[in-house]
Amino acid sequence: ELEKLGLRDDVDLHVYEVPVEYQTVQRLIPALWKKHSPQLVVHVGVSGMATTVTLEKCGHNVGYKGLDNCRFCPGSQCCVEGGPECIDSIIDMDTVCKRVSALGLDVAVTISKDAGRYLCDFTYYTSLYQSRGRSAFVHVPPLGKPYSAEQLGRALQAIVEEMLDLLEHSEDKINCQHEH
């Protein structure tokens, strides 16, 4: 849906479906970062427990015990051996949540600090590690429970645009500080 809606004109949007497989994630996420050198990667995952659009603040390295779609689980139960326990996104999710909520979309947006220690969290941590925090993860409820594809697409469009806006303004401040 977001691919249909697109983002503002100065943004190149690349959409990929990531399989629910630990080994594919470990190979694909670094390859996509290398291929595109993106300003930001926003991962979106469906959570059967979600009733809101949920912005995840951080990814976790350990505690992965569930089997993936290939019936595989990492023996180490972690994403990156020796990596930090938790990596926060450099995106201020509280600000994104407030800004998107203020737009008056018919979608509730909330914040979480635990993406669930399954493939969503595993993907998020892998991407955060690869990007030094330049990633985001958004959990969405299943279609129709309660939101339509169109509602979720509009919410994701607003979320990604707010994230890019925050990122661009923080980089302006960083660049400004370096010039003095």
From TrEMBL:
Q: Which GO terms describe its biological process?
A: proteolysis
Query: Where the protein is mainly located, per its record?
Result: cytoplasm
Please give the Gene Ontology molecular function terms for this protein: pyroglutamyl-peptidase activity
- Pfam families membership: Peptidase_C15 (PF01470)
Can you tell which superkingdom this protein's organism belongs to? Eukaryota
Instruction: Give its E.C. classification number.
Output: 3.4.19.3
The reaction(s) this protein catalyses: Release of an N-terminal pyroglutamyl group from a polypeptide, the second amino acid generally not being Pro
Q: Which UniProt keywords apply?
A: Cytoplasm, Hydrolase, Protease, Thiol protease
Q: Which PANTHER family match?
A: PROTEASE FAMILY C15 PYROGLUTAMYL-PEPTIDASE I-RELATED, PYROGLUTAMYL-PEPTIDASE 1
Quote the function comment for this protein. Answer: Removes 5-oxoproline from various penultimate amino acid residues except L-proline.
This protein's assembly is summarised as: Monomer.
Belongs to which family? Belongs to the peptidase C15 family.
The protein's name in its UniProt record: Pyroglutamyl-peptidase I
Q: Which organism is it from?
A: Mionectes macconnelli (McConnell's flycatcher)
